[in-house]
Amino acid sequence: MKTIVHLLRHGEVHNPQGVLYGRLPGYHLSDDGRLMADAAAKWFAGRDITVLYSSPMERAQETAAPIAATLGLPIGTDERLIEAANHFEGHTFGVGDGSLRRPEHWPFLWNPFRPSWGEPYEEIARRMLAAMADIREAAAGHEAVCVSHQLPIWVTRRKIEGRRLWHNPARRQCGLASVTSITYDDGRVVKVDYAEPAGELSRRPSVPGA
């Protein structure tokens, strides 16, 4: 029995200050972000989607909304799909004028493999895979959409593919409003696919931290 779980990253966020917003409330989709969500909804239209879940963050819920309207599905909220916790929430992050210049932040940078500045990669993958297992069961024989965030999606994909979880963030294949699709055959992963329904929009210059 084939079941597909699609991991959809949310669209672009309105973030003119360019901070790492993480789990902070009040960060919503930008105008382009709403267009990206619409593009994702069109991409899913006609597919055999029977279950739709989202992270509780506003940007994820807003990305899920046009999918729910297009497919006539309710949006379930699963806390396990949430963004990774990060010490630098609310700060800019960089060598120039960012948090790296402030000594009080340096103790959080000692171990990039865990990482020491936030939720461990292994814990992110564990909670994401647990959520996906429950959602896969709910959509057995059909398809499901899970709206989440870049780091949780990318780490989960690396875990599924048997790769090390620490990585170069600049090399993540997880663009805005992108879809990472995991195909299962009786619970066993048989294929991982990637698509960018809003590719043209996501390649426009965007606000930092989107």
Automatic annotation (TrEMBL):
<dbReference type="InterPro" id="IPR013078">
    <property type="entry name" value="His_Pase_superF_clade-1"/>
</dbReference>
<protein>
    <submittedName>
        <fullName>Broad specificity phosphatase PhoE</fullName>
    </submittedName>
</protein>
<dbReference type="InterPro" id="IPR029033">
    <property type="entry name" value="His_PPase_superfam"/>
</dbReference>
<dbReference type="Pfam" id="PF00300">
    <property type="entry name" value="His_Phos_1"/>
</dbReference>
<dbReference type="GO" id="GO:0016791">
    <property type="term" value="F:phosphatase activity"/>
</dbReference>
<dbReference type="GO" id="GO:0005737">
    <property type="term" value="C:cytoplasm"/>
</dbReference>
<dbReference type="InterPro" id="IPR050275">
    <property type="entry name" value="PGM_Phosphatase"/>
</dbReference>
